[in-house]
Amino acid sequence: MGPIPTQRETASRAPDVLESAGLRTVVRSTLPGSPLAAGNARRLVRAALSEWDRAAEPDAVTERLADDALLVVSELVTNAVVHAGTEVELVCRLKDAQGESAGLLVEVSDHHPSRAVRDDGAERPYGIPEYGRGLRLVSSLSTAWGISYRTGTKTVWALLPLHAALDAEDGIETYAKDSALGRGLSPAEILGPELSAFAEPGRGLHEGEWRGRGALSFLAEASDLLAGQLDEDLVAALTGQLIVPRLADWCAVWLEDEATGWRGPSAPVAAGPRLARVWHGSENRIEELRRALEKDPPRLPESVRSRAVPVPWPGEALGPRGATGAALAYRLIAGGRPLGTLVIGRAGLLRFPDEITGLVEDLSRRVALAIGAARQYARQATISRVLQRGLLPGAVAEIPGVSSALVYEPCDMGGPSGDFYDIFPAGHGRWCFALGDVQGKGPEAAVVIGLARPWLRLLAREGYDVPDVLDRLNQLLLDDATEASDAAARALVAAGTPMPVADEGPHARFLSLLYGELVPFDGGVRCTLASAGHPLPLLLGPDGDVRAVAQPQTLLGVVEDETYTCETFDLRSGDTLLCVTDGVTERRSGSRQFDDGDGLAAALADCAGMNAELVAERIRTLVHEFGGKPPEDDLALLVLQAE
């Protein structure tokens, strides 16, 4: 099998460790998350197996085991590199070749636990010629495999039999016996495995005290892992990773359908909760366990809050050695509303220890709060998406003789943007376009956009010219702000609350707007436009010449009885009009802005000869590349090009 590779050959960042104590051997290595990791891991394991074969009884490390081990190691390391991109920690253990727990245990860890490991056969793009073949390969070669999570680390493990004739059922149970639960550890040892490191003479650290410390550490880890999760199914998945195998052999999470709410014990099975997640110490058991649990969902009395309730044991799904065991169910309740049910199980027990029961009860409360927060976020995100769709046109009108391109990138994908756009026919051979930016974001911005865009269309279709449209929209915003302030003042007086000082009252609703009208004619398009507090539009000629084609004017909604003016010019074949919001011109890189020194005009001049779509994409790319961080403001730009 060849000599053990050197440090340079393995390209690892930490020294490789090859330990032997009789027939118990371990090899460890930390590999960089690079295309070389899988090959280096194979060389390391091949050399280690050769050493172990010489140290063990004859034929303990068979050729079949070596081939299977190299395939599994290659697959798991490749998965970690492709899907996490972090350093990869490899551990191989040759376990008691003469004992009942015989096997080669392979563990591969990465430091991006939020990304799922690959479990399909489809190749995905990556800059190396080697791809994983899916975890089905690992499942077929191993007697048991699974995934465990700790804060900041994900580990995929697989147990390979020393002899091909080893029964898969025996292999699953063998690995289970090596877990904390399978070894019969006390709750204190499970929750605080480093007890021996602290139990020094004279310190007086009792098991109960250490158990309390272990429980607090576990709940703190759980809180960190669940905090900020915005998807209820991800919360359910993380719950399984926290509980298995530390506290139970398996667990399952049912979630109530929010549209129908909690259903009582008399409800039919079809109307019950959905099984969101099933987790078992061995992945080989999950599908069968899921089918068994789906047949008999838990039905707990509504009088039960978060305490544990015994439920039937799904023995048929767990094999002969899992025929008996204890299973407990906990209702997940947040804000007084039942959100689902958590079930845990452990084979070979008559009952769970009280310490574990109480700890899972505390955990279930945290899980319920996380699910409640995720649902609240989902509701708000749904409202925002529906509102955002209503604030923007369903389609952009096509203008005869003009090609158009649009870039619209809200900074906050979870809420309404302050930028908006519109292109629409106004009748009598006229088309109108608008690009606006409302002061602020969220609901206040949505109110202004919901007011301005329909009025723009109405006024344009009623035949008002560009300046008159802006005059009337300006007065409309001022009147609406006054009415909102009066309504707020009346509400404060009715509530007996002192009136706020002037600068603490409802804000005026300011709007920057670029609004224009297009009229096609033979040989070009006549454009009339006006800018109210908006970045000025730029006109690019076929020869690369760039000039501004509007005059700066006051924001809408600021000055009473403001009179707006407009400019008219012709777009000839090849002329390009660029309209942007301040998310483009004020894009920052340190103390500099994108439009400093006429940066936008220079960028547009370099686009001479490009079509509308290429111009839009070019400017968008330059804006993104200008700063080291993603844009912190909404970004919108409109390109109109005469054909």
Describe the protein's architecture and organization:
The protein is α+β, with helices and mostly antiparallel strands and 643 residues long. It contains 16 helices and 23 strands. A 6-stranded antiparallel beta sheet has the order 1-2-3-4-6-5. A 5-stranded antiparallel beta sheet has the order 8-7-11-10-9, sandwiched between helices. A hairpin with a 2-residue loop joins strand 5 (144-150) and strand 6 (153-160). It is elongated. Mean pLDDT is 77; it is low at 1-24, 116-133, 164-180, 192-205, 260-271 and 501-506.
Structure described in brief:
35% of the residues lie in helices and 25% in strands.
The gross shape turns out to be: elongated
Q: Tally the helices.
A: 16
Give the proportion of residues in helices: 25-40%
Rounded mean pLDDT is 77
The biggest sheet amounts to: 6 strands, antiparallel
Separation, N- and C-terminal Cα atoms = 69 Å
Gyration radius from CA atoms, angstroms: 33 Å
Strand content: 15-25%
Count of strand segments: 23
The low-confidence runs, each spanning 5 or more residues with pLDDT under 50, are 1-24, 116-133, 164-180, 192-205, 260-271, 501-506
- Spatial order of the strands forming the largest sheet: 1-2-3-4-6-5
| Helix vs. strand class | alpha+beta
Descriptors for this entry?
single chain, 643 residues, alpha+beta, 6-stranded antiparallel sheet, 5-stranded antiparallel sheet, 16 helices, 25% strand, elongated, disordered N terminus
